[in-house]
Design a protein that fits this description.
Strand order of the largest sheet: 3-4-8-5-6
Mean pLDDT: 91
Largest sheet: 5 strands, mixed
Distance between the termini: 35 Å
Radius of gyration: 19 Å
Low-confidence stretches: none
Helix content: 25-40%
Shape: elongated
Number of helices: 5
Number of strands: 8
Structural class: alpha+beta
Order of helices and strands: HHHHHEEEEEEEE
Oligomer: single chain
Length: 207
């Protein structure tokens, strides 16, 4: 059931559309469905062949879709749940429950959840989106975050990104510079040619 959010996180539907908001509300029904402590399962437990349990990967898919829609309360809810599940170790089991084949241990630690966290930070927050012909950067700062710095390596170049909130609390239009020169921001994004191999590009945003 959680894969219904994939069109949202891949931005196949407008993030401000009724379909988007209704899908996120619908999937919210299976948060913490038949257990304590939070998390999303893969499916509604009434149609799941495994015992009821939350899955970190499925939960991160919902978090990424929520970030794409700008619904950051849902994002923080998932991230705070992940922190409670494994603390700062980052060693999330595939599913957080007794194994379906006792007395075997739970399904092992996998890298999928880390991949989704990286995508959340890189694609949805830093907004780093390499395209075939140009580089698009569309950062968004969730609530609780006022500044962001990141470094990405792409096509042999390094891109240093700095983002901070403006003092106008959203009243001013977003602005950006590339290596100190003003660049146009359209729909919250800049689209610029790739820097040459071996060079460094510094992008600074005020949102």
């Amino acid at each position: 059931d959680t894969i219904t959010v994939l069109p949202i996180l891949f931005e196949m539907i407008p993030p401000d559309s009724p379909l988007c908001s209704e899908t996120l509300r619908w999937v919210d029904r299976i948060w913490n469905q038949r257990w304590e402590g939070g998390g999303f399962p893969r499916y509604n437990v009434t149609g799941e062949d495994n015992p009821p349990a939350p899955w970190p990967l499925a939960s991160m898919l919902v978090a990424r879709a929520s970030a794409a829609a700008g619904e950051y309360d849902r994002v923080w809810r998932v991230l705070e749940w992940l922190d409670r599940v494994a603390g700062r170790s980052g060693s999330w089991f595939e599913r957080c429950a007794q194994s379906i084949t006792p007395p075997m241990p739970p399904v092992g630690v996998v890298g999928w959840t880390w991949y989704e966290i990286i995508n959340l930070c890189s694609h949805h927050v830093a907004g780093f989106r390499p395209d075939i012909d140009a580089l698009t950067v569309k950062p968004r700062l969730p609530d609780r975050i006022d500044t962001l710095t990141a470094v990405h390596a792409v096509r042999g170049a390094r891109v240093h990104l700095s983002v901070h909130r403006g003092s106008g609390k959203g009243s001013a239009a977003p602005s950006a510079t590339a290596n100190g020169k003003d660049v146009p921001v359209e729909q919250g994004a800049v689209r610029i040619p790739y820097p040459r191999r071996g060079s460094t590009l510094t992008l600074e945003f005020t949102l």
